[in-house]
Amino acid sequence: MSDTPPAFRYLDPEFLMALDELASSSSGNWWRDVLLRPDVVIAIRRNSINVYNHGASIFKVDWSRRSISLSTHAKYLVRQEQNYIPLTDSGFELTTDKLFWRTYEGPKTLDSMIAAAKKLSVSEKAGLHPLLVNDPKVIDAEIALVRPAEAETGEEDDEKILAPPPERRQDRLDAAVVRNSADGPVVTFYEAKDFSNGDLRALGDAPPAVLSQIAAYEKALATYSASLAAGYVNVARTLVRLSAMRQRVSSDAPTRQIDPLVASIAEGSSHPIIDCKPRLLILGFDKAQRDDRGWQAHLAKLTSADGLGSSRVQAVGRAKRQTRFS
Fold it and tell me: I need a labelling partner for 121 at 20 to 30 A (CA). Which of 46, 129, 175, 205 fits?
């Protein structure tokens, strides 16, 4: 994903028209297959789209030179069948046609790509997936934010570009969700952590590392709040348009519905409010782990007044189909 500040969230009208044509095609194609999948998240970028499953970008869809270009990572093209490779004196007898998808062959190819994504998924992404695909208030996922200091100074020194950074140059929030308020729709951001993540814990009176991570998110969100608000109007309008395409492809079959709050952003004359205080989502624990005294002490640090406060921490455990962002 680009290091461009997140203000630029839109698709050119010609890009949307090209997607519309694919959705309306009488013959099958990759876009119609994507629209028919209830288990993918379509995220709008700067004249591009990411199609996610379990945190993996199955497809990156770009608009370049007035045409759609499509790409994916090679690891998602590994066929999921169990193909044993003979080892001879001359080496492994690799037959790429049996190991990789070389052409897109409809839903079975997409099925295989998603199966590969699931196998490669880390625990946090796997735990978050049910919320992203089942909560209709989700408006964005995998949100990259350039840290303000980086954006201001730029990359003037080639040595700095080549040298490994002392910390991440880019923050990436896991989800953006639309919430209601007396002042109108609010976009709230979430950072997801698996229960096993050491950043949720700290010895003694030290604060857990996740608190400084979220503090960096707050600074970035405050810096870009105006441009984010404008961008999410474009995102909402695009999601409404994609929903119409999905309904057309699905015919009479039930499809994922646009949440009224997302629709209100698309139709409204004012921008949504950006909540600059992201929330923490904790996933992947069972009842025994939840009730453990040691964990309760760490959780108390996160939910204390010196931490995030109880309203900004959502301890989900193992997310189910009906689990929603709070």
Answer: 46
Confirm if 78 and 98 have CB atoms less than 8 A apart: no
Q: Rounded CA gap, 52 and 59, in Å?
A: 7
Whole-number percent of the chain with pLDDT over 70 = 89
Quick one: DSSP state of residue 36? T
Distance of CA 233 to the CA centre of its chain: 18
Closest CA to 74 of 45, 96, 107: 96
CA–CA separation, 185 vs 130, rounded Å? 23
* Inter-residue contact 24 to 248 (CB < 8 Å): yes
- Provide the 8-state DSSP code for 312: G
pLDDT per residue as tens digits for the range 50-106: 999 999 999 999 999 899 999 999 999 998 776 678 888 889 887 777 788 999 999
Contact 276, 179 (CB under 8 A): no
Q: How many CA atoms lie within 13 A of 271 on its CB side?
A: 13
* Relative orientation angle of helices 209-250 and 13-24, to the nearest 10 degrees: 50
Tell me the whole-structure pTM to 2 decimals: 0.88
